[in-house]
Amino acid sequence: MKVALVGATGLVGRVMCQVLEEREFPVSKFYPVASDHSVGKTIRFQGREHVLVSKEEAVAANPDVALFSAGASVSREWAPKFAAVGTYVIDNSSAWRMDPEIPLIVPECNQDVLTGGERIIANPNCSTIQMVVALKPLYETFGIERLVISTYQSITGTGAKAVRQYEAELAGKTPEAPAYAHQIFQNCLPHCDVFLENDYTKEEMKLVHETRKILGDPSMRITATAVRVPVFGGHSESVNVELRKPATLEKIRSLLSAAPGVILQDDPSGNAYPMPLHAHHQDEVFVGRLRIDESNPNTFNLWIVADNLRKGAATNAVQIAECLLNQEILHSGKVFK
After folding, report:
1. Cα 271 to Cα 275: distance, rounded to the nearest angstrom
2. Which of 37, 50, 158, 316 has the greatest count of CB atoms below 10 A from its CB?
3. Is the pTM of this model over 0.90?
4. Which CATH class, in words, describes the domain spanning 127-306?
């Protein structure tokens, strides 16, 4: 496979490099793409240095796959140019997610919608990915009437600028060009992305719209509050799930224990429950604190944690590329599990 990585020097781009190596994705030629001021510098991949190239050079190379993590504006301009030369684009930005013609894919949930005809494939928002991986088996078995979501999202989800702000505040310094409107060190901000006209943030509405699209249920009732917390390891979510068919905790535990990509950690008596500290650098989605909502019939609470840079971004994107290989949309002879 000839693989281009657009945004190779960013937080997610660097993790994409790691994931491609770890999962032994069959890369024969690698084209790391960065902004104009970084072209000509090098990045290490598969044990050797690779020169950063321009977007124009990468398109001219006709790569088989292009992983994008360079922001929505870059994706809107350049993803169609890669697609026009036959490249399969897997885009990590918000640019294409709600386009009705573009598949929004979480492999554990809806890889079956990939047909091979689409040249641009959207990678969902990080907080959406981990949640739908856990909810998919419940949705298939019981149906979901309503979700009430509260997220506790790592600063790494905002990028390197947020990390620099946190580190400056930790050192007692005033950060230059802060990522947030307020201090994040020793603080929580109920403000992820920009506020919209309905007073929800864009991040909160992503959870609503993307979940409906991935699960194929536009009528599902969903409300969300997204909070930024001074954590590096990953995103955490408290999800209150009202099911359509009668369910038991025992059946929910059984479904989650068998669900692909899920690790159940649910032993309160032994203080065993998911935490971002333990999810850091992991690819799985961790679920725990399962309990009945005693205030509403057939409703349950879940605590869901995952590394937002891996399963929430880089790993999911690479898994989509693996799906293309497994379905023989791409051809290399390698099969992934």
Report:
1. 11
2. 316
3. yes
4. alpha beta
